[in-house]
């Protein structure tokens, strides 16, 4: 039985000698070995740690020799085995968590002197090829190179499979818990599984040139919120993104070129870390009011179907305000937390897409809507011209919660 992971063997005498460990593991293959001899009918069990430099490996006796197991982070692929003799801590990391669990239970059995039911390895040097399992990067750019029978090395941090004709995301990729960069560009993927959100380290996701029609709410609310920095959705068939998309707060780089977007998510201003935004060649008629809150380095909105700002505002004021409108405004203004466990789900949805007035207050159904033009330089350093006429202005919607707010800002609408 073997386990591929990173290992650091730390002597517990080091601190007493005033020394410290390096704090860094090396790639290793751990083997659980059993040896029986005529003189000793009960099997002796060893843990053999082989590295690329030391393929024959170092042996550690296991039987009744384990002082303690530290398995708090076993789900993250980390664990430590503390031996009695020699007095060392064997720290394992970057392991596949289910393999690690299996391996540790076998080690536990060996420690107790039980017979291990699984095939145990013999004490032979580890082949260099075994260390290939530690590959961190794999780039596949044609269908014929795509692995069908072999698994992807679990240690991959960067995986690219382009031009492979994939129609869906391969479930084997979703087990690669160390993935930071996943490039699935130039395939035929129509839908993304919500389980992509289980890749807790995923920082870059490239889906350029696929057949996507949406980006699901489940993905927006997954752990991608904490990890995803770069997202390329260009050359797909996306018409709109859900309002929850703006919860992907770590996004710095978003590409939406060549889709069929008819609107940006209305809360786009919440993407406070966004620096690079391109949505060229879409069907945007105007920008949402929150677009003003962005602070970008680069913006490309070339080739959209921007409309001329309307001269007359749309007036939807209620007098007096309904109970729903007043309570919604109060909840949002006072930042009272809400959720579907307290109020009906459809009310949460309404609150999620409430409009922000220029005065900073909110409104649901009672408002005045006006369109103005904004110079895109006010939100971005570098602006690609929006049309062939050389303009950097685009129409933007504004909302006003009352007649007073509208009158006070009417200069803006000229
Ligand atoms: Zn207002």
TrEMBL record:
<keyword id="KW-0677">Repeat</keyword>
<keyword id="KW-0433">Leucine-rich repeat</keyword>
<comment type="function">
    <text>Substrate recognition subunit of an ECS (Elongin BC-CUL2/5-SOCS-box protein) E3 ubiquitin-protein ligase complex which mediates the ubiquitination and subsequent proteasomal degradation of target proteins. ECS(LRR1) ubiquitinates MCM7 and promotes CMG replisome disassembly by VCP and chromatin extraction during S-phase. May negatively regulate the 4-1BB-mediated signaling cascades which result in the activation of NK-kappaB and JNK1.</text>
</comment>
<dbReference type="Pfam" id="PF25344">
    <property type="entry name" value="PH_LRR1"/>
</dbReference>
<dbReference type="InterPro" id="IPR025875">
    <property type="entry name" value="Leu-rich_rpt_4"/>
</dbReference>
<dbReference type="InterPro" id="IPR050216">
    <property type="entry name" value="LRR_domain-containing"/>
</dbReference>
<dbReference type="InterPro" id="IPR032675">
    <property type="entry name" value="LRR_dom_sf"/>
</dbReference>
<dbReference type="InterPro" id="IPR057437">
    <property type="entry name" value="PIF1/LRR1_PH"/>
</dbReference>
<dbReference type="GO" id="GO:0005737">
    <property type="term" value="C:cytoplasm"/>
</dbReference>
<dbReference type="Pfam" id="PF00560">
    <property type="entry name" value="LRR_1"/>
</dbReference>
<feature type="domain" description="PIF1/LRR1 pleckstrin homology">
    <location>
        <begin position="1"/>
        <end position="120"/>
    </location>
</feature>
<dbReference type="InterPro" id="IPR001611">
    <property type="entry name" value="Leu-rich_rpt"/>
</dbReference>
<keyword id="KW-0833">Ubl conjugation pathway</keyword>
<dbReference type="GO" id="GO:0005634">
    <property type="term" value="C:nucleus"/>
</dbReference>
<dbReference type="InterPro" id="IPR003591">
    <property type="entry name" value="Leu-rich_rpt_typical-subtyp"/>
</dbReference>
<dbReference type="Pfam" id="PF12799">
    <property type="entry name" value="LRR_4"/>
</dbReference>
<comment type="pathway">
    <text>Protein modification; protein ubiquitination.</text>
</comment>
<keyword id="KW-0539">Nucleus</keyword>
<comment type="subunit">
    <text>Component of the probable ECS(LRR1) E3 ubiquitin-protein ligase complex which contains CUL2, RBX1, Elongin BC complex and LRR1. Interacts with CUL2, RBX1, ELOB and ELOC.</text>
</comment>
<protein>
    <recommendedName>
        <fullName>Leucine-rich repeat protein 1</fullName>
    </recommendedName>
</protein>
């Amino acid at each position: 039985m073997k386990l591929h992971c990173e290992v650091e063997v730390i002597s517990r005498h080091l601190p007493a000698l005033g020394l410290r460990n390096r704090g860094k593991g090396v790639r290793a293959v751990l083997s659980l070995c059993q040896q029986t001899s005529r003189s000793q009918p009960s099997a002796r069990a060893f843990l053999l740690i082989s590295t690329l430099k030391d393929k024959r490996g170092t042996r550690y006796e296991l039987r009744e020799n384990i002082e303690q197991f530290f398995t708090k982070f076993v789900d993250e692929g980390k664990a430590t085995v503390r031996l009695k003799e020699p007095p060392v801590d064997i720290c394992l990391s970057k392991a596949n968590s289910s393999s690690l669990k299996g391996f540790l239970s076998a080690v536990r059995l060996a420690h107790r002197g039980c017979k291990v039911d699984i095939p145990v390895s013999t004490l032979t040097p580890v082949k260099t090829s075994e260390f290939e399992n530690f590959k961190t990067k794999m780039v596949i750019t044609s269908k014929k190179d795509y692995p069908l029978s072999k698994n992807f090395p679990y240690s991959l941090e960067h995986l690219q499979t382009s031009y492979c004709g994939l129609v869906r995301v391969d479930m084997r990729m979703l087990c690669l818990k160390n993935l930071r960069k996943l490039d699935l560009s130039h395939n035929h993927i129509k839908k993304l599984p919500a389980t992509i959100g289980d890749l807790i380290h995923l920082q870059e996701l490239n889906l350029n040139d696929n057949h996507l029609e949406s980006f699901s709410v489940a993905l927006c609310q997954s752990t991608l919120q904490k990890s995803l920095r770069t997202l390329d959705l260009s050359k797909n068939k996306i018409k709109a993104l859900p309002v929850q998309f703006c919860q992907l707060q770590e996004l710095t780089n978003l590409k939406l070129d060549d889709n069929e977007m008819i609107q940006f998510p209305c809360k786009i201003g919440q993407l406070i870390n966004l620096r690079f935004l391109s949505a060229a060649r879409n069907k945007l008629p105007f920008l949402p009011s929150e677009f003003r809150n962005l602070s970008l380095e680069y913006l490309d909105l070339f080739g959209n179907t921007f409309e001329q700002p309307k001269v007359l505002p749309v007036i939807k004021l209620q007098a007096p305000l309904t109970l729903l409108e007043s309570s919604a405004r109060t909840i949002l203004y006072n930042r009272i937390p809400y959720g579907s466990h307290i109020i009906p789900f459809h009310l949460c949805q309404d609150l999620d897409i409430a409009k922000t007035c220029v005065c900073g207050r909110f409104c649901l159904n009672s408002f005045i809507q006006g369109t103005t033009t904004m110079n895109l330089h006010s939100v971005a350093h570098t602006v690609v011209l929006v049309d062939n006429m050389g303009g950097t202005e685009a129409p933007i919607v504004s909302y006003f919660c009352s007649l007073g707010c509208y009158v006070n800002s009417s200069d803006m609408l000229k």
